[in-house]
Design a protein that fits this description.
This protein is α/β, with parallel strands linked by helices. It has 2 domains: about 45-125 and about 235-290, Periplasmic binding protein-like II (D-Maltodextrin-Binding Protein, domain 2); about 125-235, 3-Layer(aba) Sandwich (D-Maltodextrin-Binding Protein, domain 2). Helix content is about 45%, strand content about 20%. It has 12 helices and 10 strands. It has helices at about 1-30, 55, 60-70, 85-90, 105-110, 145-155, 165-180, 195-205, 215-220, 255-265, 265-275, 280; strands at about 45-50, 75-80, 95-100, 115-130, 160, 190, 210, 225-230, 235-245, 285-290. Strands 1, 2, 3, 4, 7, 8, 9 and 10 form an 8-stranded mixed beta sheet that branches. A two-stranded parallel ribbon has the order 5-6.
Length: about 300
């Protein structure tokens, strides 16, 4: 009898152990998984982004910034400026990071030591828009330079940004190629405003203007303008993200700027950019370029 009891003891201990394990498992299951820990708030959560007006006027940043803020814990303060003014603001150390589209000015900014880590983000293109009756007869013109020449010859009203923006830089480059100096001409109007306001002025005055495609599509329904010239390679519009050189101001948010730059070129963000506008306008307003060589942007 004693031997039989000793033989049964291992089995009894096994049953007791299994019962204890089952109770522990049931207890764990009833509690559920441990809640995910909240992302720690950055030591310096305020991030100043100086950007071109087109990223604001199209609504793109309204789509991207909340995603970035949720993922990172940073709070973005966007400054909607022409690219030239955005670059100047950063050069003074008054912005942490840039999202701009004026390649020649950007290269000068980098050469002067004002920025670090310039990265390709996306592109769209510029278009020439104007009144439906098209008094200068530019519709369907294959080369933007030819269209500008016709506008000047017809002395048709043309509204320029006149604000040192990326759009303004492109427009002035085209005038230079025509050999025409429009400044001071009665038909040449400088708005000194952003893209959205310039389009509105052009519509009110039945005038021509140059716009990035995204802003024009975003505001087209409220404008008395139509798209007349497009798809000339000279009208390519490329955007970069640039971190301000930390030496410009010891209060710059260096970590936040890097987090934003990394976010803009991340695969998930690039997919958001590729899809933006398709549901509302039937086409994308921007096309992702991150990871491409600089000379492959827009191709």
């Amino acid at each position: 009898m004693r031997v039989r009891l000793l033989l049964l003891l291992p089995t009894l201990f096994s049953v007791l152990a299994c019962g204890s394990g089952a109770r522990n498992a049931a207890s764990t299951a009833s509690v559920g998984p441990a809640p995910a820990q909240a992302r720690p708030r950055p030591a310096n959560p305020r991030l100043i982004l100086a950007t071109t007006t087109s990223t604001v006027d199209t609504g793109l940043l309204d789509r991207l910034i909340p995603v970035f803020e949720k993922q990172s814990g940073y709070s973005v303060v966007p400054l909607s400026l022409g690219s030239g003014e955005a670059l100047t603001t950063a050069a003074r150390g008054e912005a942490d990071v840039l999202l701009v589209h004026s390649p020649d000015a950007e290269q000068a900014f980098m050469a002067a030591g004002n920025g670090v880590d310039r990265r390709l983000v996306m592109h769209n293109d510029f278009v020439i828009v104007g009144p439906v009756n098209d008094p200068a007869r530019i519709q369907g013109t294959l080369m933007a330079v030819d269209a500008m020449t016709r506008i000047a010859a017809a002395q048709a009203p043309f509204v320029a940004r006149g604000d040192n923006s990326g759009t303004s830089a492109l427009e002035l480059k085209l005038w230079k190629l025509t050999g025409i100096a429009p400044a001071g001409q009665a038909w040449y109007i400088e708005s000194g405003t952003g893209m959205g306001q310039t389009l509105s002025i052009a519509g009110d005055k039945a005038a021509y203007t140059i716009s990035d495609r995204g802003t024009f599509l975003a505001q087209q329904r409220s404008l008395r303008l139509t798209l007349l010239v497009e798809k000339d390679p000279a009208l390519l519009n490329i955007y970069h993200v640039i971190r301000t050189n930390p030496t410009k101001n010891d209060r710059l948010n260096v970590e936040g700027a890097k987090a934003f730059a990394d976010f803009m070129v991340a695969a998930a963000t690039q997919r958001l950019i590729a899809d933006y506008g398709k549901d509302k306008y039937g086409q994308a307003l921007f096309f992702p370029d991150a990871g491409r060589a600089e000379d492959q942007g827009g191709k």
